[in-house]
């Protein structure tokens, strides 16, 4: 009984030493208007001990900003007779529409692969969840292709060393959102890590939404997809006809 009591006491003392994170973001709502060219989001906060004072040691901080997950079909192109055509494809159930991770130093130096996979710390460890049976190597190939495509579009990013910690208390990271950032509710999650172990985490939310004519068009396209498609085709045909008439008059 004494040994058991001592074990519980040690666990309680260990928990009491774990830090408390107080996260915040510079904008809880981002409004996409006409001419939106992207913005910078500041994720910051404090690292405190349970008594509310400055933490007694240094912690590595990893910040993850993730957009709404979605099901997406990834297609692989193949060149046949000099023409690129769609070849193999797979559907991924939980691909984030936006993903950014920033850390105090390289993630491989902060946690091991198992911990990185559990918390999805880094592009390499995104859990995209393919639908149906798929070969492991094929899954890795499709996942890599999706990540590289979104990286090139600025929708996926990994910035190691971008989190700055001051006086063991305040941390901050600046994350870029591109002009084509998807709408929805984003989760900004902060992790405090020491000796390869996540000892604290906290999260806040950011809402990205369209306003004005852009929102009206987006809502119409979502609610009346078929009619929106017909109107888009009709407008294209009309604009082509107008352009042809103008050139005929020149």
SSE arrangement, N to C: HEEEEEEEHHHEEEEEHH
CATH topology term of the largest domain: Immunoglobulin-like
**How many domain modules?**
2
Q: How many β-strand stretches?
A: 12
Main sheet: strands, sense, barrel: 6 strands, mixed
Shape: globular
Radius of gyration: 24 Å
Give the overall pLDDT as a whole number: 80
Q: Could you give the order of strands across the largest sheet? A: 2-12-11-4-7-8
CATH homologous superfamily annotation of the largest domain: Macroglobulin (MG2) domain
Given as residue ranges, the uncertain stretches (5+ residues, pLDDT < 50) are: 1-15
CATH domain class of the largest domain:
Mainly Beta
> Treating each run of at least 4 consecutive H or I residues as one helix, how many helices?
6
Structural class: alpha+beta
Query: Termini, distance in Å?
Result: 98 Å
How does CATH name the architecture of the largest domain?
Sandwich
Helix content: 25-40%
Strand content: 35-45%
Task: Characterise this structure.
The chain is an alpha+beta fold and 250 residues long. It has 2 domains: 15-210, Macroglobulin (MG2) domain (Immunoglobulin-like), CATH 2.60.40; 211-250. The chain has 6 helices and 12 strands. The chain has helices at 2-17, 107-110, 113-119, 136-152, 212-223, 225-249; strands at residues 20-25, 29-32, 39-48, 60-66, 69-80, 83-96, 99-103, 156-160, 164-166, 170-177, 184-194, 197-210. Strands 2-12-11-4-7-8 form a 6-stranded mixed sheet. It has a 4-stranded antiparallel sheet with strand order 1-3-10-9, with no helix packed on it. β9 (164-166) and β10 (170-177) form a beta hairpin. α5 crosses α6 (225-249). The longest helix has 25 residues, at 225-249. The radius of gyration is 24 Å and the shape is globular. The termini are far apart. Mean pLDDT is 80; it is low at 1-15.
